[in-house]
């Protein structure tokens, strides 16, 4: 139990600094946070992180769903000591919050995933390593000590590569594998399409691959196989910048990479194998045979899929719309949560991803029955504005608000929350 509480500690920190004329480096309010990040980032970077599928109806629905629930506070309860921690897969974590996987973070900050990993370790909040990371899982694990971390898996067309990634995750100390199922193909993302921008085509966000021995062998085999050379368009400044970006992404000497076919072949290999649209339920048994780590399925929105997942021996679910980036006009994640929870019936942890911005959102999701939530865009905006410190501040702000909301509604522990503390509105 924490008599000070994360919320009061964070408030005191801010208000004491304010006496000396210092204000938070990163905006505390979620809307202002995104607005500030937009000003700080170039249009391509902002569009990639902020954008959603189609007309972004799903993205807006993810946020609007939280507005359909209101909290009913209770009073005259002793809430002077509160415990915001929860246990998941045998780990006690400080709050029901994890940092979700966000790819190609080098677009927003040079230290990318490595800065996020340090911030996660400093706060004790688990980080889900992105399969599309800008630093390898090993590099991130090296700065985290024994802090909790999970690994997100995109199922490649190469099962040998999948096995290698999963094995590396176990060696890197990951506590779970999160199989992302809603991105077997890239969704229709107009913001990126209008800019003609896919970071992976420039060698960004593929560090998990270029650090993998199986992937590197596949690249070398591709180069060795050769094949008919395609006619190349006349070089442009953009093409030269792309070549430089690819050369930086491949291990080894940058100067040598500029003259080598390997960096370009790495991008081509990645684009050809990174996802597998043919994956089915039958493949889960194979994955189960390759790892002892808990397996969660991310992207589950239908109760029948939730039941089938547990029947197949899956250890947990993440209700997610991929932040509204894959299917436009999808049901929102929060609206899908109650039916999924009903299907699971307490047999496995169910996490919520998509639309979470504040500690109040965390409270609502957990009250509805989520074991924990994944936080995504907010920490990316914090990274853009303040690097590691920016991420730490965003985490502290979310956890602080959750702690205060817990106490101000008359509760002292997470397991006291239930749908009874909420009412439908609007």
What does this structure look like?
- The chain is an alpha/beta fold and 426 residues long.
- It has a single domain (6-191, 276-424), classed as TIM Barrel.
- Helices cover 47% and strands 10% of the residues.
- The protein has 18 helices and 12 strands.
- The chain has helices at residues 6-19, 30-40, 43-50, 57-66, 112-123, 137-142, 159-171, 190-195, 207-210, 213-225, 237-249, 254-259, 262-273, 283-290, 303-311, 333-344, 359-368, 377-408, and strands at 69-71, 86-88, 91-93, 97-99, 127-129, 149-153, 177-180, 295-298, 316-319, 350-353, 372-375, 422-424.
- The strands form 3 sheets. The protein has an 8-stranded parallel β-sheet.
- The protein is globular and about 75 Å long.
Helix-strand layout with pairing:
Elements: H1 6-19, H2 30-40, H3 43-50, H4 57-66, E1 69-71, E2 86-88, E3 91-93, E4 97-99, H5 112-123, E5 127-129, H6 137-142, E6 149-153, H7 159-171, E7 177-180, H8 190-195, H9 207-210, H10 213-225, H11 237-249, H12 254-259, H13 262-273, H14 283-290, E8 295-298, H15 303-311, E9 316-319, H16 333-344, E10 350-353, H17 359-368, E11 372-375, H18 377-408, E12 422-424
Parallel strand pairs: 4-11, 5-6, 6-7, 7-8, 8-9, 9-10, 10-11
Antiparallel strand pairs: 1-12, 2-3
Helix pairs in contact: 1-18, 2-18, 5-18, 10-13, 11-13, 15-16, 17-18
